[in-house]
Amino acid sequence: MSRKILLTLVLLLSGLSGISYEILYGRILGGILGDQFAVSSAVLITFLLGIGLGARFAHRLWRRLWMIEALIGIYGIAFVWSQDAIEHLLYNGMGFLPSLAGPILVGTLLLLLPTLLLGCSVPLFAGYLGRMNEGPMFSRVYAIYNFGAAATALLIEFWLIRQFGITGTVMVFGLVNLLAATLLYFVARPIALVPPGAAEASHTPRNHLFALILVSIASAIFQLFMVKIAELMFGPFRESFAFVLAIILFGIALGSFLVKRLNVGFGKLMLANVVGLLLFIVLYRDLLFVYADLYEKAVEHGMAILFLKGGILALLMGIPAVTFGATIPALLNSRREVARESGHLLYICSLANVAGFLLMALVLHQYLDYGVQLLVIAALVTAALLAFHFDEIRQWRGYRLPLAAAVVLLSTAGWQHWKWDEDLLYLSYTSFHSAKDMEDDRKSFNFPEKFKGYQDVFSINWSNGNPYFFINGYISIPMNNPSEKTVGTLGPMFSPQTKQALVLGLGSGATASAVGLLFDHTDVVEINPVVRDNQFRMKQWNFDIEHNPRVTIVVDDGIHYIQSVDKSYDMILNTVTSPLYFSSSKLYTVDFFDKIKRRLNPDGIYLTWMDSRIGSEGARIILNSLRQRFAHCSILFVKSGYYLLVASDKPVKLQHPDLV
User: Is 307 helix (H, G, I), strand (E, B) or coil?
Assistant: First the structure.
């Protein structure tokens, strides 16, 4: 096998492992600190900045690519082996800082080294292969690396974690990096010994850099936009995020390939991008109907439903994903050695991605409808195209592409104003499981009250006179249904003492409010600030819980609260959404039950719920996990498909039959 083919194989291995650490480190820290916006934001920003800085200075580590790959793998393996120590450090390392500030700072410092190392990979591989190929190689390297990353995004979600768990999956990718390092040491040593000369550096025009900044901001906004759209369409599942991430990465790979193969310029890419955003607005309603119409057939054929979801998303976001992904290859000069130049552009792109993320979270998502957010993205792309051709436009030439983009932008604005159906996104994701249900629910539901936070969407939906609690694509049973209050009263009836209670998950407040009426004091933990801020809108269904003097509402993740509070409870009730959903599954693990027991009084009880959607295998896993940590467990039937589990180290029995 030739040296060039071996080095390409190593590049693919590096791509396979690279994105895995962003996903897996985020999951590990989320399992320790919780999935609050502050934690997930810190992880994302650290990766973007670290990778950007690593790319910026990668050329200075020209001879050390093999060592960089080795250190990435060694750090990953050491990270998972040291999780207990890391957890202790996160909660005790900077106790003088308030609330989450200390743990987030420690977590950021822990992630800084691996992110810097990861950022070095693409520029150095581009430089190495450029030496061997005697020609421009960045587009090819970028395509192969991101193709591997896209495959990893799917493998992690749909196979690796299910087979090996998070710890085992990190170990797998750590070994992949060590294999890549070993091959690099022997295959690329002659190249590594001859560093690039100063002549490699080249000047990128300022208007081109400004165009890159604008389009990178737009790209970051688009990625976050698509994550929310996927959640609203398919539900707040991790697989929804995995599909979006994989398509974005495949888009980078395909866009890089097209730039190399067809020599597509930056201007044409941006025009195609704006056209793709227009097609998104035009087609999204029809594609949702196609998805709903095919869902019932696809779900009966196993993997077919995954291909259906992936296909619908690819049709919606494919053109923008490909054209956003091709921007750096299109801007990069056609040079043989590009370690310095590509690193500089990747660095600028990463900084602009951070700006785009902050703009989306702090401004756009909170204050603009999703259709208007698409217009903002299209406007930024059009502005990038204008900036790129600025010098030519000043001389009254090269204006055709910007003019065409402006026409498409105006068409997009018109279509968004007259045809975009924002309310369609506020149906439950289950409404899209049947074309008839989708059409009927769209006619019957009213959406007078919608509220958005940094990343969460909340509304009170009305149908046939009944109010429904909607959050991130999930819709509850009617808030005037007695079931939630029944759950809130059953716990106190089984609790030996009724002094101190903890409820995880506020939601509509129906369950927590019932507990708050029956215990001397109740702490309620809610992860979503937008839900906490709008409790007064649901006071007719939750006994006006926020004005109950015996109830304290805390905005936090249950994991972090349990770890950081110094308090014991007679009863802890978990009411968060099903473990099928994005951030809820960590509250159904043996590790979490250990943490729960440390906060229970000796005769205290723990209650959690499950529904029929988890299936018999899911129920078996939850029951076995509870049995490993509690001596006694009982199941209460609340209503069809809705069960309440009561666990304790003391026999579970009805203590206060006349309490309610």
Answer: helix
- Residue 373's φ and ψ, nearest 5 degrees, are -60, -40
- Helix 370-388 vs helix 206-234: crossing angle, to nearest 10: 160
Q: Are 41 and 361 in contact (CB under 8 A)?
A: yes
Residues 596-614, mean pLDDT to the nearest whole number = 93
For position 260, what pLDDT does the model report? Answer: 87
Residue 100 neighbours by CB under 8 Å, 6+ apart: 33, 36, 38, 39, 560
> Tokens 């083919």 correspond to what residue?
5
pLDDT class for 616, splitting at 50, 70, 90? confident
Please write the tens of the pLDDT for every residue from 131-156.
877 666 899 999 999 999 999 999 99
Q: Tally Cβ neighbours within 10 Å of residue 5.
A: 10
Buried b (16+ CB within 10 A) or exposed e, 272-308: bbbbbbbbbbbebeebbebbbebbeebeeeeeebeeb
* C-beta separation of 285 from 316 below 8 A: no
Q: Is the dihedral of CA 538, 641, 621, 166 positive or negative?
A: negative
Residue 400 CB-density burial (10 A; 0-12 exposed, 13-18 middle, 19+ buried): exposed
Most confident of 83-87, 223-227, 637-641: 223-227
- 531 and 471 in contact (C-beta within 8 Å)? yes
**Residues in CB range of 407: below 8 A, 6 or more apart:** none
Note the pLDDT of residue 608. 95
DSSP symbols for 455-471: S-EEEEEEETTEEEEEE
The burial class, CB within 10 Å (0-12 / 13-18 / 19+), for 134 is exposed
Only one residue has tokens 């006006």, namely 544
- Residue 639 has phi, psi (to 5 degrees) of -160, 180
Residues with Cβ within 8 Å of 440's Cβ and at least 6 positions away in sequence, in order, are none
Place of tokens 């996160």: 90
- Between the CA atoms of 83, 87, 89 and 93, what dihedral angle is there, to the nearest 10 degrees? 160
pLDDT tens digits, residue range 23-37? Answer: 999 999 999 999 889
Contacts of 103 (CB under 8 A, 6+ apart): 33, 90, 91, 93, 94, 560
Cα 166 to Cα 83: distance, rounded to the nearest angstrom:
12
Q: Could you tell me the two tokens for 579?
A: 């473990």
Averaged pLDDT of the chain: 92
Contact 90, 103 (CB under 8 A): yes
Count the alpha carbons within 13 Å of 419 in the hemisphere toward its beta carbon. 14
The CA R_g of the chain, rounded to the nearest whole Å, is: 26
Q: Name the residue among 446, 553, 571, 562 with its Cα closest to residue 506.
A: 553
Q: Alpha-carbon distance 116 to 449, whole Å?
A: 44
Cβ proximity of 272 and 323 under 8 Å? yes
